[in-house]
Amino acid sequence: MKDKFISLIKTSKKISVITGAGISAESGVPTFRGENGLWRSYRPEDLATPEAFTRDPKLVWEWYNWRRELISNCTPNSAHLFISYLESLIPEFLLITQNVDGLHKRGGSRNIIEIHGSIWDIKCSKCLYLSENRDLPIIYPPLCPQCQNILRPGVVWFGESLDYRKLEESVNFIATSDLLIVIGTSGIVQPVASLPFQGKQINKKLKIIEINPTSTPITNISDLFIKEPSAKFLSDLKIFS
Ligand code: APR
What we know:
Layout: H1 2-10, E1 14-19, H2 44-47, H3 50-55, H4 57-72, H5 78-89, E2 92-97, H6 103-106, E3 112-114, E4 117-124, E5 130-132, E6 151-155, H7 164-175, E7 179-183, H8 195-202, E8 207-211, E9 224-226, H9 230-234
Parallel strand pairs: 1-2, 1-7, 2-3, 7-8, 8-9
Antiparallel strand pairs: 4-5, 4-6
Bound molecules: adenosine-5-diphosphoribose.
Residues 20-23, 25-26, 31-34, 44, 98, 116, 183-186, 189, 211-214, 216, 229-230 line the site of adenosine-5-diphosphoribose (APR).
């Protein structure tokens, strides 16, 4: 398993990586659909929507304050660190993460698309104001310094469109890669769930490695499926020594 993983990496000049909540699980960040993903009795799908924010912005901010506090106590794990190490070795490299926790950046990743935004950004619900904010907690109600309307988390919610430029860049990069590594995503939330399929459809030579303790729809098109927690598998993996 490790040999095939290393050999696929060594024969690749251009690598893309897609990550989801599972990569941060071993850092202590709950996944969305895992057992610890619930806050009070709410599912993320009930809180991470524009409708939920319109209905009860205070409740949504309470959830985000809880998550910001939790994430601020977590640190990048071996899988985050492995990805930034890989970036330093591979000539062409792009990380596309669905995670909003910022742990990849803290782990040293630079060429990164945070396709669902960042929990450390806040933006105006009406105008184009967007800013980084690390306050713990955010005092309710946070108001836009430009237009005085309520500020919201700088993340993409269910039912909202992703930035099409980021999506286009991701598709193009994946489709021209030698290797795509998919780590810790359930592969059911669109449009990111389709990226591996699109990549393979456009470029038949694209190899896919998936790392996840549970199989997903992406497992079916993977050339190598590593059925393990990612930080455990990637810790101390010396590829070029
Ligand atoms: N290592 C690798 N994978 C893991 C680990 C681990 N230690 N622990 C759990 N996983 C896997 C699970 O098996 C599951 O397939 O991580 C995946 C987590 O799935 P989700 O919780 O559904 O998270 P994700 O796929 O990132 O969700 C996508 O949905 O809620 C929205 O916007 C939110 O970005 C999120 C998106």
